[in-house]
Design a protein that fits this description.
Layout: E1 2-7, E2 13-17, E3 21-25, E4 28-33, E5 36-41, E6 53-55, E7 57-60, H1 62-72, H2 77-80, H3 91-102, E8 111-116, E9 119-125, E10 132-139, E11 144-152, E12 165-168, H4 175-181, H5 186-192, H6 195-198, E13 207-210, E14 224-227, E15 230-233, H7 241-248, H8 252-258, E16 263-265, E17 271-273, E18 281-284, E19 287-290, H9 298-305, H10 309-319, E20 327-332, E21 345-348, E22 351-352, E23 354-355, E24 358-359, H11 372-394, H12 396-400, H13 403-416, H14 431-436, H15 440-445, H16 454-467, H17 473-482, H18 484-493, H19 498-512
Parallel strand pairs: 1-7
Antiparallel strand pairs: 1-2, 3-4, 4-5, 5-6, 8-9, 9-10, 10-11, 12-13, 14-19, 15-18, 16-17, 20-21, 21-22, 23-24
């Protein structure tokens, strides 16, 4: 039966085919039955305050009308509308109703997830079918509007897999040595290269296809897979260089450095990155992928990447306030911009973009979940990418620097990308010359990026302190003296935050005495 709606904000009218049901909104209760619309006025407690009126249309706000418009676009939407009276349906009543539907199984889990300010969802598992049922309902400050049933099959988690690529055969290589090099089987190589069945001899200079490398396959003893330089043929959906780099496991910076033709400069001197085209060949530089951690812990990451546990504890965890607790489902990090008005979808220990080959977005964020072991593995790979960027950018000068200075550079790249090292307003612009001249005192003092942004100033000071860890006492004191002016500016910036300023003063004083780790223990 068609019923008329009137938008109280725009005064526009529309119609929607509805079954008999009850709608409560804006302190009004509409009972819709057999082509008749009955209206009851409600007080703030949801009680009926007057006589029933017969009306011609249902008056809803613009927000509520949009909800019904969205509802009407669904298949079999009428069957999704609950025809029960929704008044006074509490969370407890809702659980009782669901238990009546699914039985008194103690394993049923009700998980309330806030979608918007007015939208919530409960998740239950149907024991008989193994499917996930979602009961979504929408509410405003007054009451519930309607409830929508949705049933979907749980999505299988996709494990990370590098894309397949072409490899040029070197002298004396055999199918066995190539399979061992790329951690695949000879059968997988033959399956991707059926021509090898009739002609198994490998010719130097010819090319074969290497299948995607799964993380769950057997790996080398050091749990790091080295991927040699190769050519990748762009597939549909990979037109964005950043998306491709994220999927492969390298930074966009490394991808563009290997393919300079993807960058152009406009009249204002700004760098423009063009989109890739399906079928286009791009060069992928040699890189390493962390395939497994011996221990899913800070110690495991420290051993695998070659960085200190103190750096991860003090800078990545303590300063960021994470305290070693990863987020196992995506969330918005609050760092908003024009393209990301809600912030960036983040998981684990601050990881954004793709997770195990899946691009996190608003449509799939509720289905993506990782384990704590996977969170540590993702962090290890992110740090590996930052370290490889530093090694490429600084060359052999990076590996010659004290480990604490290396970690400060890795942290800048981890936090702001390689672009952070190239900003003209940041002291870290001088790091390349510092490392070239082996001036590690100045390098520690210059480990500062975006020096005027309040949210980064505290991290900059702690990074400088940490960078002095492996310097000799006299050089440490000199580095801190060089950075003192910036420290005092930061202290002044946090003058109204007594706790932060007190801790900064305490840790700066500790650094003068040689205590440069364990900031918040």
């Amino acid at each position: 039966m068609l019923y008329s709606f009137r938008n109280t904000d725009s005064n526009e009218k529309s119609t929607l085919d509805l079954p008999n049901c009850t709608i409560i909104a804006n302190n009004k209760k509409y009972v819709i039955k057999d082509s008749v619309i009955q209206l009851f006025e409600l007080n703030n407690d949801g009680e009926i305050t007057g006589d029933c009126k017969i009306v011609n249309d249902i008056q809803l706000s613009d927000e509520h009308v949009s909800i019904f418009t969205q509802l009407a676009s669904m298949d079999n939407y009428k069957s999704r509308i609950d025809t029960n009276d929704l008044n006074d349906l509490s969370k407890k009543d809702l659980k009782s109703e669901l238990k009546e539907t699914y039985g008194e199984d103690k394993d049923i889990k009700f998980r309330k997830v806030k979608i918007r300010d007015y939208s919530f969802r409960y998740r239950v598992k149907n024991k008989e079918t193994g499917e996930i049922d979602y009961l979504s309902f929408i509410e405003n400050r007054e009451s519930l509007i309607t409830r929508i049933w949705k049933k979907i099959k749980p999505k299988k988690k996709i494990k990370y897999k590098t894309p397949e690529f072409q490899y040029q055969i070197d002298n004396h290589e055999t199918l066995e040595t190539i399979a061992l090099k790329f951690n695949v089987t000879e059968e997988e190589l033959i399956k991707k290269n059926p021509g090898l069945i009739d002609n198994p001899k490998l010719n130097s200079g010819s090319k074969i296809i290497i299948p995607g490398i799964k993380h769950k396959t057997k790996v080398l003893a050091d749990n790091v897979q080295k991927i040699p330089e190769h050519e990748y043929i762009v597939e549909e959906g990979m037109e964005n260089p950043a998306t491709l780099a994220n999927l492969i496991g390298i930074s966009q910076y490394r991808l563009l450095e290997s393919n300079p033709h993807l960058k152009t400069t406009n009249r204002r001197g700004e760098t423009i990155i063009r989109a890739l085209e399906p079928g286009e060949a791009v060069k992928i530089p040699e890189y390493e992928v962390v395939t497994k951690l011996n221990k899913s812990s800070l110690e495991g990451i420290s051993e695998q990447i070659g960085i200190s546990k103190a750096y991860i504890e003090d800078i990545l965890f303590s300063i960021e306030g994470r305290h070693s607790k990863p987020d196992l489902k995506p969330y918005y990090d609050g760092v908003k911009d024009r393209l990301h008005p809600k912030g960036y979808l983040t998981i684990g220990f601050g990881h954004t973009g793709r997770v195990f080959g899946i691009e996190m977005n608003s449509k799939n964020k509720d289905y993506i979940k990782i384990t704590e072991d996977e969170a540590y593995l993702i962090l290890a790979q992110d740090l590996m990418i930052a370290k490889q960027d530093a090694q490429y950018y600084f060359g052999e000068d990076f590996d010659k620097a004290p480990l604490s200075v290396q970690e400060a550079i890795i942290d800048i790249i981890f936090n702001k990308g390689i672009e952070g090292l190239q900003r003209e307003d940041s002291p870290c612009l001088n790091l390349k010359n510092n490392l070239k001249n082996k001036d590690y005192t100045s390098a520690a003092a210059n480990a500062i990026v975006d020096p005027t942004i309040r949210g980064l100033m505290k991290r900059n000071v702690y990074r400088v302190i940490m960078a002095t860890r492996d310097l000799k006492p006299k050089k440490r004191a000199l580095a801190l003296e060089k950075a003192r002016e910036y420290y005092e500016k930061t202290l002044n910036k946090f003058a109204k935050d007594s706790l932060t300023s007190r801790l900064l003063e305490q840790h700066w004083q500790n650094a003068q005495e040689g205590i440069v780790t364990g900031f918040f223990k």
